[in-house]
Inverse folding.
């Protein structure tokens, strides 16, 4: 049984970060609709979808911490039984991450003119989605922290596949952009800026996803 600090501490800090990043996403969404008014309608609907899912996700995360720390504060159930809304976390995460990964796979296909890399990214994105759904079902059925190890396979499938997709996305985007270089200074400078942005943003996601699955495998009896 994990200690209260290792059980609720990482979860609470994670919810703090998630809420801060949600505020950032709301601002980014506003800027997007102000700047890219000529984008295809389905891309705009996709942005709305992501905002809607992240709004639900943030609400579920807050509820996930409110139950054990307020409603069930000081009771044995708080440290024994997982919060009801914890089961929603894997599902909401893959509804967001897998959708974004599939979208980027489509972008990679356009840039690379190849179907192999997008197919690989899509495979890992769909596998991650299946793992996330399986984890949600498992947490709903097996809701005692002490028994969470019984569905390690579902969690590893979810996290490892997502990490693999993010790593491949970053590498394939950089490779595709490098092939777009023309030899003209102005064009290449612009492409180099996009490459730097891709590495900076893509690597954050890829490294975070890799650390996620690594911490899950290495550190037991904690929610790090």
């Amino acid at each position: 049984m994990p200690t209260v600090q290792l059980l609720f501490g990482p979860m609470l800090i994670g919810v703090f970060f998630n809420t801060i990043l949600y505020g950032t996403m709301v601002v980014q969404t506003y800027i997007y609709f102000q700047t890219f008014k000529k984008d295809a309608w389905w891309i705009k609907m996709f942005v709305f979808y992501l905002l809607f899912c992240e709004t639900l996700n943030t609400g579920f995360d807050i509820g996930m911490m409110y139950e054990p720390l307020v409603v069930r504060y000081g009771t044995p159930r708080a440290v024994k039984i997982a919060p009801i809304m914890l089961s929603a976390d894997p599902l909401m995460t893959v509804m967001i991450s897998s959708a974004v990964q599939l979208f980027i796979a489509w972008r990679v296909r356009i840039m690379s003119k190849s179907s192999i890399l997008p197919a690989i990214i899509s495979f890992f994105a769909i596998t991650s989605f299946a793992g996330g759904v399986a984890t949600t079902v498992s947490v709903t059925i097996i809701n005692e922290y002490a028994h969470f190890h019984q569905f390690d396979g579902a969690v590893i499938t979810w996290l490892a596949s997502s990490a693999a997709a993010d790593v491949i996305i970053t590498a394939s985007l950089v490779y595709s952009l490098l092939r777009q270089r023309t030899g003209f200074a102005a064009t290449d400078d612009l492409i180099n800026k996009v490459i730097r942005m891709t590495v900076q943003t893509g690597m954050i996601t890829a490294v975070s996803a890799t650390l996620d699955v690594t911490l899950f495998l290495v550190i037991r009896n904690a929610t790090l």
Summary: The CA atoms of residues 183 and 189 lie 10 Å apart. The chain has one domain: 4-218. The chain has a mean pLDDT of 90. The helical segments are 4-35, 41-71, 76-80, 88-112, 116-141, 152-178, 185-218.
